[in-house]
């Protein structure tokens, strides 16, 4: 009897668990295991890191092409300047390299945009339903089209913006242009116009998940127009009136077209 009591005190159960019942100390059926949740989050972050690295490599590869083509691109970017202002000065020994590097990075981002959009889609797509994938998939090439459209609009209005700004110079305020501010102005305008043209994709995606609707966008049209005007004025470089006016008008047209697309999708 003493030996049996000793065995019971040691933690040995009196009888074996019934067949099919969970073992002592094991989680109940259907209970979530914390380790699986942590691994799922770790895998998600690991995939994000992989996508970001691929995006970075694409930008680096595009920037290498831009670095090689930088002298030719630089000659192209000074063409919007009036005659007599196409010779730009540098103020420091490193300005030439900094300008070349800035042009290369801007070209790299533009050339890498298809890869960037694909990596974004590949990261987001697993969390979507089949119907959402089917609806949103055609908007990925449209996002590339909107980006190219923004860059094209920036190139078209660049001469008018420069003429507007140089119209305030005279014999006292002599327009002797420095290279770093000019190329900063040009590359920033291209990237800003290209990226801001992506906002129809954002609105459509928000409509698909039920955050906004075509009726709600129509009812807030006045506030949206004011927001577009303020945002275009703040985002465009240079301080001229031509760039924010054209950018704001283009964004408003895309806003109206996005409302039509959202309404036709039943939202």
Domain count, please report it. 1
Q: Report the mean per-residue pLDDT as an integer.
A: 78
- According to DSSP, the number of beta strands is 0
DSSP helical segment count: 10
What low-confidence regions span 5 or more consecutive residues with pLDDT below 50? Answer: 6-16, 18-23, 25-39
Give the SSE string. Answer: HHHHHHHHHH
The assigned structural class equals: mainly alpha
Largest sheet: none
Query: Rg from C-alpha positions?
Result: 29 Å
Could you give the distance between the termini?
Answer: 77 Å
> In which range does the helix fraction lie?
over 70%
Q: What is the global morphology?
A: flat
What is the strand content? under 5%
Task: Show the helix and strand layout.
Blueprint: H1 2-9, H2 34-77, H3 95-124, H4 130-136, H5 139-166, H6 179-196, H7 199-208, H8 214-219, H9 221-235, H10 242-264
Description:
The structure is a single chain. The protein is an all-alpha fold and 267 residues long. The protein has one domain (42-264). The protein is built from ten helices and no strands. It has helices at residues 2-9, 34-77, 95-124, 130-136, 139-166, 179-196, 199-208, 214-219, 221-235, 242-264. The protein starts with a helix and ends with a helix.
């Amino acid at each position: 009897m003493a030996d049996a009591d000793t065995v019971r005190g040691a933690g040995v159960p009196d009888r074996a668990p019934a067949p099919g019942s969970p073992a002592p100390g094991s989680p109940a059926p259907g209970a979530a295991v914390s380790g699986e949740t942590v691994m799922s989050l770790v895998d998600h972050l690991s995939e994000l890191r992989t996508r970001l690295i691929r995006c970075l490599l694409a930008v680096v590869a595009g920037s290498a092409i831009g670095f090689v083509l930088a002298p030719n691109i630089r000659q192209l970017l000074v063409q919007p300047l009036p005659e007599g202002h196409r010779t730009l000065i540098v103020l420091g020994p490193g300005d030439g390299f900094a300008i070349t590097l800035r042009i290369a990075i801007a070209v790299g981002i533009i050339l890498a945009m298809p890869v960037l959009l694909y990596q974004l889609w590949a990261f987001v797509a697993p969390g979507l339903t089949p119907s959402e994938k089917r609806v949103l998939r055609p908007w990925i090439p449209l996002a590339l089209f909107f980006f190219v459209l923004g860059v094209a609009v920036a190139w078209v209005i660049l001469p008018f913006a420069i003429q507007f700004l140089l119209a305030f110079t005279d014999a006292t305020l002599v327009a002797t242009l420095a290279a770093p501010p000019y190329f900063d102005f040009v590359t920033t305008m291209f990237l800003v116009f290209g990226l801001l043209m992506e906002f129809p994709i954002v609105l459509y995606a928000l409509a698909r998940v039920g955050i906004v609707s075509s009726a709600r966008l129509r009812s807030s049209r006045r506030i949206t127009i004011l927001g577009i005007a303020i945002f275009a004025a703040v985002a465009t470089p240079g301080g001229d009136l031509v760039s924010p006016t054209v950018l704001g008008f283009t964004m408003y047209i895309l806003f109206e077209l996005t409302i039509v697309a959202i309404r036709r999708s039943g939202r």
